[in-house]
Amino acid sequence: MSKSLNRVQAALIAAGIEPRILEMAGSTRTAVEAADQAGCELDQIVKSLIFQGPNGLALFLTAGGRQVDPARASALAGQKLDRADPNTVREVTGFAIGGVSPLGHLTALPVWADRRLADFSVIWAAAGTPRHIFQVEPPALIRAAGAEWAEFCA
Fold first, then answer.
1. Residue 40 gets which letter from DSSP?
2. Residue 98, phi then psi, degrees to nearest 5
3. What are the backbone dihedrals phi and psi of residue 132, each rounded to the nearest 5 degrees, phi first?
4. Most-buried pick from 32, 52, 102, 108 (CB within 10 A)?
């Protein structure tokens, strides 16, 4: 098992969540690919998007079919934000883009969650690799990730 996958599994267990991590036959790098592999609605996929500003990084957990509005995200974070570059994402989270999990990061970040995710009984998120995802109930994920529900999508 990869170090990234181990970190996600350990974070789930530490949060009291029974890990249900699945290795998919195809790629789950994008929300569309992940939804196809999981057999779920696009918005049931959690996109873990890292943004950076002059005062640090922030994580936004977004429903698969939605986009982060940079102005709204910046207002929440209290700083102007832009998408973080892939090297920074890997350095701070320990995950490569396409496998960034909402939890198990190397560095703690402020986290906001798209309210659309609460519309489902279960959601799916990356488990640290481009082929592993896990199923979880939205309130459990938000609690485990230390996230705050917020409106930040366009």
1. S
2. 100, -10
3. -115, 135
4. 102
Q: Count of CB atoms within 10 A of residue 69's CB?
A: 13
How far apart (Å, rounded) are the C-alpha atoms in residues 106 and 92? 6
CA distances from 112 to 12, 74, 86, 95 (A): 18, 12, 20, 19
Q: Are 42 and 119 in contact (CB under 8 A)?
A: no
pLDDT digits (tens, 9 = 90+) for 106-134: 999 999 999 999 999 999 999 999 999 99
In this structure, the dihedral spanned by the alpha carbons of residues 78, 81, 87 and 93, taken in order and rounded to 10 degrees, is: 40
- Tell which phi-psi region holds residue 128, choosing left (phi > 0), alpha (psi between -120 and 50) or beta: left
Cβ atoms of residues 33 and 26 within 8 Å = yes
pTM over 0.70? The answer is: yes
